[in-house]
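Researcher: Go.
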Amino acid sequence: MKQILLSAISLDLKSKDPLHRQLFLQLREAILDGTLKAGTRLPSTRLLAKDLNVSRNTILAAFDQLMAEGYLTSRTGSGTFISDQIPDEILTKSAKKENPQKIDRHFPLSSHAAALHQKKASQVYHGGPFSPGTPELEQFPFVDWSRLLAKHWRRPKRELLTGNPIGGSRDLREALSDYLAQTRAVKSDPEQIIVLSGSQQAIHLVVRAFANPGDPILMEDPGFPGVRNTIIGAGATPIPVPVDDEGFSLEAAEKLAPEARLACIAPSHQYPLGPTMSLPRRLDLLNWAKQTDSFLLEDDYDSEYRYTGRPLSSLQGLDTDQRVIYVGSMSKVMFSGLRIGYMVVPPDLVDMFLSLRRDMDGHSPATVEPALAEFIREGHLSSHIRRMRLLYDERQQCLLKLLQDKCGDFLDVKPQESGMHLVAFLKDNIRDLDVEAKCKEDGLLLRALSRFYHGPKSRNGLIIGFAGTSKEHMPAHVDKLQQHLVTLNGGKT
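Model: Structure:
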């Protein structure tokens, strides 16, 4: 018995899971799959600890958990045994090791869910080479960040443990108000800022606030898929509006949906093509909103990274009629796992948006907000952005040269004035979707440009992120891309 049991146990000292947890899971699995039968006597905790080279407390902790869940039973003077009280159906189902079978059935869905269900959801991967929107993570100032987290959670204030204001902590809203005024010329009082779990939640709130089922909502084409999905999920109708060198085309929008009362745009750095909306078009858009009693959702997702001159002022900063809802995120300037976004709303809409936010999930987590407020106030965020702006500029130039030198026969690529990715247009009949699929096999997470179009016209190209990929690794990655392009071109260079 002892040898059979020990041969099935393997504890990994490098695992993030505690040893007692590993032992508990392995013993439970052996019981459920029938390897350890009911009534089997286990070795003593001392003997097991010696053979596994762990402390006896580790064994005791695992045994205690197994006993608490009914897998083991202790008999005074006899030892510890596998319980004979585990239901047969549990043991039988576990022993079969069957994978869940997909049921072919029809089930009632709301019209909103059905619209999204028609398109198969695809897993979005982040963090790999050439992944658009992935920042450099190795050079983040984690020492400062961890110090601030420890400071606020070593002895947390009571209010951090009992909840959070609907709009987020006062300290963070004040810090964001000052930061946005200095860096983006956003005009706001702290009360106008609502802290959220990301920019996607902000988009959801804005669409929910202004769209009735069937209403047309203007969006950029190509554009961020999260905007389109949110519009569809709200039961409204997304209206793809072409993007040219000056950004969102108001002229086309007025022809496509003259009755629309909401436009979702990224004027400072359009995603994915990258143009910055010209000042005349910004003013025309603000005038259109005023004249038609409409609103503008300004998605300012990565405008901090501008490589020619200073970052441009926000559209919200030009707004004199309170028509712009400004949306920002910490995902690009810090890291996406932080899950912090925010919106700046006109004063007369604050109560309405707070009510919508409260009904969605009550409030944002209080865990990181005090640390983030101090991180901003002490200047760590601004310093990090300045360092990354220089680093990303170098990486863009490196990737640009590599693509032009090695893939110039297939790609037409030019530098971007801002952002974290390049757009490379395919010259020949190679499909960008095929390139994306081939590159994914090698772990290269570039994206097919055609995926982001929903209007009658689309372009064939690649969205290639450079911010999170080091210069040292870029040549090898570009070599792989080149090989796939040659293969997809029938072996012709």
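Model: The radius of gyration is 28 Å.
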